[in-house]
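User: Reviewer 2 asked us to show a designed sequence for the structure in our supplementary figure. I'm pasting the structure tokens here. Could you produce the per-position amino acids so we can include them in the response letter?
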């Protein structure tokens, strides 16, 4: 009888914690060693939205020497959101808690499969979701039956591969640090590619084919803090984007918000924000150099399509509402915790009947 009473108390405690937002929500993140990465920024933005909404998010990292995001994203994310290391071996989780793991960390899913908390996959990159899984392994066999992803197109693709999982979509938010410059654009072209060699080869080919434009400056956007990234971007006359495996693509949207036209190679999975009239979209990587030269010539002659700038602004506005992003995040996790509480309440009724 004492054990039964104890079990009843534990279940009631879990129900109360879920109803009162006192359950912990762990977000596992990789250590980028101080390098900016959009996927990590997205996780921190979600965690901050939950913290502002009265929830209890915790950033979970693998090693004690975690560098963090303070230098490139902002110190507030390191000081206002609690952090915890797996290596310290003091991780205490309850059945009412939730663990959110990015799709790339299949081995982490395997390690936590026997833990009691609810488990959610955060899939930002469809191309990475099978990388650390063995052939035949699925998320659901590790207890991950819920997935959050960043676009409808990505959801549709992943759903065909990973069965037995429910899906929710939360598009990324483009930070307010990205804004238009009050000064005329400079002769700078921002380049953002998945592979750095593509950036190097593009610049070399451009100067060789069009030596008359050797005074144009190309800027590789790697290794910048978010503030430096935004400051550099808003001064540019053109952005070039190449990432065949992109699951969403925030760089083009950041460029649009800064009023900078985008020349991009269409990725394999075309995001819903990409339309033929909000950028210069091509299907062949080798054509980028020639199209960039034509754009610069038209830019110098003030012969650009004004309608494209209007469409860029409309597109960027859809992903710039911070309060809407925070509400979407909080509503999703609130609904998740309410449903978890109902499961515990049903369990409590069974225990009481017994």
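Assistant: Here is a per-position design you can include in the supplement:
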């Amino acid at each position: 009888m004492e054990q039964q009473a104890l079990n009843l108390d534990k279940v009631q405690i879990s129900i109360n914690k879920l109803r009162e937002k006192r359950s912990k929500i762990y977000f596992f993140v990789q250590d980028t060693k101080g390098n900016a990465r959009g996927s990590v920024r997205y996780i921190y933005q979600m965690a901050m939205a939950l913290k502002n909404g009265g929830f209890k998010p915790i950033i979970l990292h693998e090693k004690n020497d975690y560098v963090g995001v303070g230098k490139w994203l902002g110190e507030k994310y390191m000081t206002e959101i609690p952090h915890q290391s797996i290596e310290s071996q003091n991780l205490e989780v309850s059945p009412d808690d939730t663990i959110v793991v990015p799709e790339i960390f299949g081995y982490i899913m395997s390690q936590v499969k026997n833990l009691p908390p609810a488990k959610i996959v955060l899939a930002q990159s469809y191309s990475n979701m099978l990388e650390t899984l063995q052939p035949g392994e699925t998320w659901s066999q590790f207890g991950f039956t819920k997935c959050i992803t960043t676009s409808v197109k990505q959801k549709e693709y992943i759903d065909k591969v990973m069965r037995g999982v429910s899906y929710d979509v939360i598009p990324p938010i483009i930070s307010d640090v990205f804004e238009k410059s009050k000064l005329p654009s400079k002769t700078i072209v921002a380049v953002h590619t998945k592979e750095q060699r593509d950036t190097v080869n593009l610049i070399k080919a451009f100067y060789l084919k069009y030596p008359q434009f050797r005074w144009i400056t190309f800027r590789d956007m790697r290794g910048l803090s978010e503030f430096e990234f935004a400051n550099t971007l808003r001064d540019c006359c053109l952005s070039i984007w190449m990432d065949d495996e992109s699951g969403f693509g925030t760089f083009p949207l950041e460029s649009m918000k800064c009023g900078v036209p985008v020349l991009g190679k269409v990725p394999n999975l075309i995001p819903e924000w990409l339309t033929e009239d909000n950028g210069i979209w091509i299907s062949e990587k080798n054509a980028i150099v020639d199209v960039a030269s034509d754009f610069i010539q038209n830019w110098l002659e003030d012969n650009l399509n004004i309608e494209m700038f209007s469409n860029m602004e409309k597109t960027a506005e859809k992903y710039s509402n911070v309060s809407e992003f925070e509400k979407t995040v909080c509503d999703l996790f609130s609904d998740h915790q309410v449903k978890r509480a109902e499961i515990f309440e049903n369990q409590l009724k069974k225990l009481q009947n017994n």
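For the response letter, you might also mention the following. The longest strand covers residues 56-61. The mean pLDDT is 93.
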